[in-house]
Every structure is written in structure tokens, then in C-alpha cells.
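In this supplementary section we document a worked example of the pipeline. Step one takes a protein sequence of length 156 as its only input; no multiple sequence alignment statistics are reported here. Step two produces a three-dimensional model, which step three serialises into C-alpha cells for compact storage. The input and output of this example are shown verbatim.
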Amino acid sequence: MPNLYEGSIRADGLKFAIVASRFNEFITARLIEGAIDALVRHGARDEDIHLIRVPGAFEIPSVARWAASSGKFHAVICLGAVIRGATPHFEYIAAEVSKGVALVAMESRVPVVFGVLTTDTLEQAIERAGSKAGNKGFDAAMAAMELVDLRKKLEA
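The serialised model returned by step three reads:
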């Protein structure tokens, strides 16, 4: 039987940064609520959750890098919503925020989780921010907690 490594989901004693865009606030507010709910349900204290607001999704990767390299957090959760419009702006922003967060995650010594919605319609964003499709902010926080624990186990 091979050795199995899996992270457990717990937040007690851990510090989290949530980097969230203000653009599309109607959606991002619900993602933030979902992430905080997941963290608190799993033992995080309010004072260990740090919300960092940025103007839009494009700014998320650079601020996530600052947070990840600060040494203050066990994980960084990136939240935002990019919704397709009538111009190619969507493609540029969605691609750059995705690549940027992925780059930060690969270079970071702490887990950096992608919780940025990239949807074709407002309705799809609403579904992913707390209605039919669950809350992707909650899901991102769950992944962050699991990755923190998995990293600890792999480094032990």
C-alpha cells in the first residue's frame, strides 16, 4: 500500500489573508461571506482573518504575492468576479488574473487559492456566489485550510 498524504480541514491557530476585489461588489461580498463562514466554522478566530480589498481582479495577483511573502499568513485566498461583457476586456482580465494567481501560488511558500469567478453572465456569477452552485468563496477557504495542513504533513 502506498503512503497517502491528505490535508484535514481545520483553521484553529491559523492566519488567513483574503484578497478580494471591490469590482462586482454584489458578487464578491457573497464570496467573502462564504470564505469567512468556512474559516470560522472550522475554528478560525475573527482576528486571524485579514480582508485585503483591491480595486479589481487585475490587482489580485500582486497583492496576493505581497500577502504571501509577508510571513504573516498561513494561506492566501483570492476572491473576485469577472463577468463577460460586450468587449474583449473579459478575456484579458480573466486570463491575466488566472495566470497571475497561478504564478504566485507556484512561487509562494504558503498556499494561494484561486476563488475568482469567471462567468459569461451575472446569473452564473450569482449561482456560484451562494445559490444553486454553492459558494465558491466557501470552497476556496476549504481548499486553503486543507492545503495548509497538507503542506505541514509533507514538510514533517
